[in-house]
Amino acid sequence: MRKSQRLGFGVATLILLLTVALSALAAESEPTETQLFLRGAKLWGAYCGQCHNARSGSEFNRLEWDTLLLHMRVRANLPAADAEALRVFLRSSH
């Protein structure tokens, strides 16, 4: 094997290893549905009970919760990640 071929093989191997490592890192950073549910349960008490009585998840259907959460994202200045966790928690009641 010539020196240029070995160098090309080494670079290709390095790129492959970096791709695999970055893919694994990205997969770890995505919260699971269970993690979102648990986080949403905590946030539900913290956010929703501050200004009004916190509603039961079964009080509204899935589409109504989506609409309400969009409204409350603006109204209560909810970060997107918190709103997603709340959505998972509240939609789990159906």
Describe the structure.
It is a single chain. Helix content is 77%, strand content 0%. By secondary structure, it is mainly α. It folds into 2 domains: 30 residues; 59 residues, no CATH class. The radius of gyration is 22 Å and the shape is rod-shaped. The model has no long low-confidence stretch (mean pLDDT 82).
Note the main attributes of this structure.
94 residues; mainly alpha; 77% helix; 0% strand
**What percent of residues are in strands?**
under 5%
SS summary, helix count: 4
Helix content: over 70%
> How much is the radius of gyration in Å?
22 Å
Q: What are the secondary-structure elements, in order, as H or E?
A: HHHH
N→C terminal distance: 63 Å
Total separate domains: 2
Helix-and-strand structural type? mainly alpha
Number of strands: 0
Give the helix/strand layout.
Blueprint: H1 3-29, H2 33-51, H3 62-75, H4 80-91
Helix pairs in contact: 2-4, 3-4
